[in-house]
Amino acid sequence: MQGVKDTLYLMARLARQYKKSPRIITLARMLTARLPPKDWYGEIVAVHMYVRDTIRYVQDVDGVETLATPDRTLEEMAGDCDDKSLLLAALLGAIGHPSRFVAVGESYGSLTHVLVETKLADDWLPLETTERVSPGWFPPGMVSAFRVNV
To answer: Measuring CA to CA, which residue among 26, 83, 21 is closest to residue 57?
Structure first.
C-alpha cells in the first residue's frame, strides 16, 4: 500500500508540473473553446470525456507498475488508470480546476484503482476515466480510499 501512496504523491507532483506545459494548456483550451464563458461544469465534462473516450485504456506491463507522463500518454493515445488520471488532472489544472487523486480498493488496506476528483463549487466531483460513466460516478463497493491533492 505504501507503494501506491508514493505513486500518488509522484502523480500529484507531475500534474502540478505538466499543468503548466504549453502542450497541455493548448489542448485544454482547445477542448473547451466552444463553451460559453465560465461554464465550469461544461469544461470539466469536455476534458473528462476527451480523456475517457479518446485515450485507450491499456493495462500495465505484466507484473510491472508503470507511470506515463501526460506527454507520453498523449503520444501513445493509451494508458492505464493512473496514466489517464494524471493526464486528466494536468488538463483540468491547466484551465484552473483543482483536483486530487483517489486510490480505491475493494478490501480494507487494498488500493487497486485510481481516479480523479475535481472541485466544483463546494463539492468534489469524481471523474472515472476507464469506464463510460458520467462525472459524479464513483466505483461501487470500494471500502478503502486514499486521497492526494494536486
So the answer is: 83
Q: At what angle do helices 40-54 and 22-32 cross, to 10 degrees?
A: 110
Name the burial class of residue 20, with classes exposed (0-12), middle (13-18) and buried (19+) by CB atoms within 10 angstroms of its CB.
exposed
The predicted model scores a pTM of 0.97
Q: How far apart are CA 46 and CA 133, in angstroms?
A: 13
Cα 125 to Cα 123: distance, rounded to the nearest angstrom: 6
Distance of CA 60 to the CA centre of its chain: 16
Helix (H) or strand (E) holding 96: none
Flag whether pLDDT at 63 surpasses 90: no
Residue 144 pairs with which residues in a beta bridge? 105
Q: What CA–CA distance (Å, rounded) separates 147 from 143? A: 13
Q: 28: which 3 cell numbers?
A: 485544454
pLDDT band at 31 (very low <50, low <70, confident <90, very high): very high
Tell me, what DSSP letter sits at residue 2?
A: H
Q: Which amino acid is at 119?
A: K
